[in-house]
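Incident log, structure service

09:12 report received: a user says their structure output differs between two submissions of the same chain.
09:20 pulled the input from the user's history:
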Amino acid sequence: MRRVYNSDRINRNGKSHVTQAPFTILNQIDTLFIDNICPDSATIHWKKIEGATKYVLFDLKAKYMEPFDTVSTNNATFSNYPGFERWISVMPITGTGMKGKRCVAKPIYKLFNCVQAIDLSVLPDTSLVTSKIFCEESVQIFKAVLKNEGSDTIEKITIHYKTGENDIKSKLFEQSIIPGKSIEIEFDTLLVSKNYNIDVRLWCDAPGETARYNDTLQFHVDYQVQNPTGTVLPYQQDFENEEFPPNYWTVVTNDIQVNWDTISCVGSSGKLTKAAWMNNFNNILEGSFDDLVTQKFNLLDETEAFLSFDYAYTRFDQDYNDSLKVEISINCGESYDETLFYDGGSTLQTVSDMDEIFVPDSPKQWKTIYIDLKNYLGQIPNFRFRNISGYGNSLLLDNIRVVNKIKPEAVII
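09:34 re-ran on a clean worker, output below:
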């Protein structure tokens, strides 16, 4: 809120000072409103600030916001090229030159409220999954949506696309698109018989179009194909590699800000290690699920098989505690019909309650679980480690093993 001091005396911490003239503190502009973005100009406005006689416009450059224009009204029109994203901010100034704070910058990008005769936009296919682990060879069809954003009917559209390192290919679509309408197109097919980590780019040409600011679509796909017969035993995952989740593992979460990650800590061996970590201490979505899903394992010819893992956990207190559920699937994750392990709260704890984030610093803070897989011999299962948050504290997993032999002293559940 703006404050106007009628007195010219300032008092602070028992000291006083007399100013030469009354002064004001300017309000900050709340927000910028975009009126239009055209091929050669953009217009914005904002609410007037009491006491301000002019406004300085800023543009984000390589490192800093830099001034590029000054106006005396609460609106401005400036030259623009919609093909590049610009961040614009405005700062009020009084007649005596006192500066207020710049407002939060707002992006100026693409066309807005500026209809062109011919304007074709390319929109993504919302059903496309760009990151997936396949259980077997699969075919992925790449689609896009072409929308007529202009005022004239568009005919004879040529699309160009490039998938990974393949050559650029082109296709002609003679279907007409009237203003405001869209069509869905299929532009490429990918046989996923191996792992792919590639970029896909699509752009289009419409006769007579000059507003070429929204006619390109680019996305990245990360596809992995598991061995249909699964990984042979023995297997151990210690999370020491930089890549997380590991190859053929996935993380499924309700919250992209807080989910499974890795953390350095003292492991069950007493040495510094990396472990899979779920930060429930900062996970305010109580009751939410966060899954760490393994690859498939080959138990077809095994006569014995066991799942084992190390875990460390503590609660925040008796009112805020979390759970761990371990489930098995024999249809490559289509369903998880059986639970192998389920515990939480005080009975899951390996160390006393903590009111700060728990990071193991002793091997005594870990526990090892052994699970007999005798009921799944002859199958190709995978496992899901599900964290159920209660806004409690850290849950860590390490040394997840699928083996055909265990130590004689191991306690099997």
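09:41 both user submissions now match this output. Likely a transient worker issue. Closing.
09:42 reviewer note: The CA atoms of residues 8 and 19 lie 5 Å apart. Residues 1-8 have pLDDT under 50 and may be disordered.
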